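Please go through this protein, sequence plus structure tokens, and consider how the sequence yields the tokens. Keep your notes short.
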Amino acid sequence: MKQFPAFIDLANRRTVILGGGEAALAKARLVVAAGGAPVLIWPEIASALRAELAGRAELVEASPARADLAGAALVFVAVDDAETAARWARTAKSEGALVNVVDRAELCDFLTPAIVDRGALTVAISTGGAGPVFARSIREKIEALIPARTDALLELAARCRDTVKAKIAAPARRRFWEEFFRGAVAERALAGDDDGARALALGAVDSFDTDQKEGVVHIIGAGPGDPDLLTLRAFRLIQSADVILHDRLVSDEILNLARRDAERVFVGKAKANHAVPQDEIEARMIAYARDGKTVARLKGGDPFVFGRGGEELDALRAAGVEAVVTPGITAATGCAAAARLPLTHRDDAQAVTFVTGHAKGDEDPDLDWSALASLKNTLVVYMGVGKASTIAARLIYHGRKSSTPAAIIENGTRYNQLIVKGTLGDLGVLVERAGVKGPALLVIGEVAARADGAGLVDIATNVRRAA
């Protein structure tokens, strides 16, 4: 964070705008919307500006003077001439005001962000002047997510706040507000039924059970790593969780979506290095839930595709703990899309099979090699980098041609994605030659030849092909 965001009450502060054209009008609109009464000063003030701001701003059609800036909290300089703008910016700063100069970030003490205005709820987005157009595009996305009547819900919450504080003790108060903003009260208010929402809110305060309730565990698929590939429900649950138990494949960008006060617990596993044993992970989830916490068990990809989500769900069920599963984009589909590699294709593959190349300890994967070799369709191997040579040899031995196209996708969907193309016979050498460490997928089949996404390295011609 390069700049400190702050919201300023302008109701009782002097705000001066130097300028009389469209840019000055834009700044005046912001000040008026925030409850201020700006003073606009410039020798010529456009008639449109005069008409719109009549009765809402003081308009002074004259050359500004230093005395006009005395006592101003904020000064906006909205003039075209660079030298004039710089001069007035220096003058305003010498008078102790914070200054914003339109389109000249280097002269600004503060920047005006892109704003989402829902009454009591205000969201401000700033790029530090680097990309205001991008900030506006982000604003449009946020506006689509926030219901139009959010202000009505917040007004109701404000009216109820003193009553809630008087009747519900602090330890349980947060749980009340969580239910308030997620439940029937919010639904009524957002739907426009103000009277119904008010009645429900008052009833909720009187009937609220202050006893500690058992929490819930959300087993969440975090996708292959790119936060843009999270489902909306996963995004919402991550932000509402009290505790997050996460694997090593969950990216920092996704973890940073969590509340600042949420407890983060790393329970990742790597080959021959289990930071936390599986039974302890399950015991921790159960303990947190029984303590009344909302738990997010974040797993890379999809929790039910080689993610041991089924085992964790069984443990939670056996303990009588409420569990909810939220699917994620599994590595195969996410990485294949990033590599522009279709897992099925009418010309090349009518089916796709997912298998794991991971086995207990350092043993070879125990798979039906004969069946896999005979499928002739797309084969995707999770966690198979360390056994790539063995996997290739077994498939070739059982009838798959060594010339079958193959691709390795490392860190798929991430900024450091690497795609290596070659053939099945060269698979182990490709892994070694490209320095693939993982996490990575092996894709075997005719469709692998189509991979051409970002990070492509086609080194097949430099590798000695198997006989």
Notes: Residues 189 and 228 are 30 Å apart (CA to CA). The chain has four domains: 14-112, 150-207, 216-329, 333-462.
